[in-house]
Design goal:
This protein has 14 helices and 24 strands. By secondary structure, it is of the alpha/beta class. It folds into three domains: about 80 residues, Urease, subunit C, domain 1 (Roll), CATH 2.30.40.10; about 260 residues, TIM Barrel, CATH 3.20.20; about 80 residues, no CATH class. Strands 6, 7, 8, 9, 10, 11, 12, 17, 18, 23 and 24 form an eleven-stranded parallel sheet that branches. Strands 1, 2, 3, 4, 5, 19, 20, 21 and 22 form a nine-stranded mixed sheet that branches. β10, α6 and β11 form a beta-alpha-beta unit. The model has no long low-confidence stretch (mean pLDDT about 95). Pfam families: Amidohydro_1. This is Amidohydrolase family protein. GO terms for molecular function: deacetylase activity; hydrolase activity, acting on carbon-nitrogen (but not peptide) bonds.
Length: about 475
């Protein structure tokens, strides 16, 4: 008798080359068996006819910090089928504070956004200052650092130093392309790749640099794909939502402070001021993140304007700025050896309401741009390997953690989210509590001393080779 058996789902496990109707047995939080028909019974038997069961969905780029809209990103991720995620900016202490009341039972890793002006009073800190800050950051439990170039541009020399130091220390480093010399566009992507030649880097949301701001969308996407083919040291993801995410705060003079918001306003012909934001909201091209007290969603029109003004402009929002063509090209592009150019499908969501790996991402399968096995590879296996979580992303009996996502392919609807064999969400009802934090050896003691469950990983080794399924 196993702890649990899920019977009759279409099981898709690209690592093991399996795609068929099967039963899956769970014991002690691990996958115990996978077979077309398992004899015996579980303490809990669950019929899953008509559903697809995949290794747990992993979102390799989302946001859980309340500064991006609400404290409820973990709930929203679990509702969308996510079992493991990488928060890309923190603040880590903010996320830790939300876990007791907003945790949903999923696995969470986080990297800290780097803001040297706030930390050191300069955009060009010394290498010693950068190293000292990063050491403290990972000792607190974060796994690394993110350069927020598109939103908060820094000198290219500072960015290069951060990537070099992170590589030397063996900690995680990501970059939202952009600096004081290039924007969050294809020019910024070129600049980043040239700046980090030979270094390991996670280059965030490739689709965000292919919005047609410099060249036609198709040309930008083709260039981005070739840049990544030519620079295999870069690991990357792209999201599939038409909506972006940005900060709508204005300074005391009424000027927009976030550079992504500035660019979006210019794109739609509005000034980069509070009046510009008002105009964009009224025109219906800017939506404001609304905190419902349970999750967050997007408000529009008069309600959006009221929320933004009531918050003193300190809110997050979304513009529909991601062209379908570049999202499609980036999701399916392959290298000459058959591996994916952009390694994963992410959301850049979390508390930003666009957790659409399943609800939109499966459209790529129906369209024929990806097979279902390839979709699972890009949303589970590849990000698991990148995060060095080698017991996730597959369903190998005796080896794999029992993290699973069940969905209905026809309606592209998540039905159940399972972490370590336990259901944390089913049919829209949240069941899971707390969180298991993914950290390195540097942060384990701090997090365990605070009573958190911990998974230890490492980034001081070589990036795992890309695999072709």
């Amino acid at each position: 008798m196993w702890d649990r058996i899920i019977r009759g789902a279409r099981v898709v496990d690209p690592k093991n080359g399996f795609d068929g109707i099967a039963d899956v047995a769970i014991e002690d939080g691990r996958v115990a068996a996978v077979a077309t028909s398992l004899a015996g019974r579980g303490k809990v038997d669950e019929e899953a006819d008509g559903l697809v069961l995949m290794p747990g969905l992993i979102d390799s780029h989302l946001h859980l910090g309340s500064v991006f809209g609400s404290a409820y990103g973990q709930r929203m991720a679990a509702l969308a089928g996510v079992t493991t995620c990488l928060d890309m900016a923190g603040p880590f202490t903010d996320i830790l504070g939300t876990i007791p009341y907003a945790g949903a039972g999923i696995n969470v890793a986080s990297i800290e956004g780097f803001s040297p002006d706030a930390l050191f009073g300069t955009l060009s800190p010394t290498r010693g200052e950068i190293r000292s800050w990063l050491e403290k950051t990972v000792e607190a439990g974060s796994v690394g650092v993110k350069l927020m170039g598109g939103h908060w541009p820094l000198p290219l020399e500072t960015c290069r130093s951060v990537v070099e130091i992170a590589n030397e220390m063996g900690v995680y480093v990501a970059w939202h392309a952009g600096s004081t010399t290039a924007g969050s566009n294809i020019e910024g992507m070129r600049e980043v790749i040239e700046a980090v030649k030979g270094l390991k880097l996670h280059l965030a949301h490739i689709n965000a640099y292919c919005r047609g701001r410099i060249n036609p969308v198709e040309a930008e996407a083709a260039e981005a794909i070739q840049l990544l083919i030519d620079n295999p040291n870069i690991w990357s993801e792209g999201y599939v939502s038409p909506m972006n995410g940005t900060i709508l705060t204005c300074d005391e003079k009424g000027e927009v402070i976030d550079h992504v918001t500035r660019t979006c306003l210019k794109t739609y012909g509005f000034p980069i001021t509070a009046d510009g934001i008002r105009g964009a909201i009224k025109k219906g091209v800017l939506f404001v993140v609304r905190d419902t007290g349970i999750i967050s969603d997007l408000a529009e029109g008069d309600e959006a304007l009221r929320l933004w003004e009531a918050a003193g402009t300190k809110t997050a929002g979304s513009f529909p700025v991601n062209p379908a063509l570049s999202r499609l090209m980036i999701a399916g592009a392959k290298r000459p050896d058959g591996t994916f150019v952009v390694d994963a499908i992410s959301t850049d969501g979390g508390c930003i309401p666009r957790n659409v790996q399943i609800s939109i991402g499966l459209s790529l399968v129906k369209f024929g741009a990806l097979t279902l096995s390839e979709f699972v590879q890009k949303t589970s296996l590849n990000p698991a390997r990148h995060l060095r979580l080698f017991d996730r992303g597959h369903l190998t009996p005796g080896e794999a953690a029992a993290d699973m996502t069940l969905f209905r392919l026809e309606t592209q609807e998540v039905v159940e989210t399972i972490v370590a064999g336990n259901t944390v969400m089913k049919k829209g009802q949240l069941i899971g509590k707390g969180a298991t934090l993914i950290t390195t050896k540097h942060g384990r003691a701090s997090l365990e001393s605070q009573g958190f469950r911990v998974i230890e990983t490492r980034f001081d080794d070589a990036e795992p080779e890309r695999i072709r399924i």
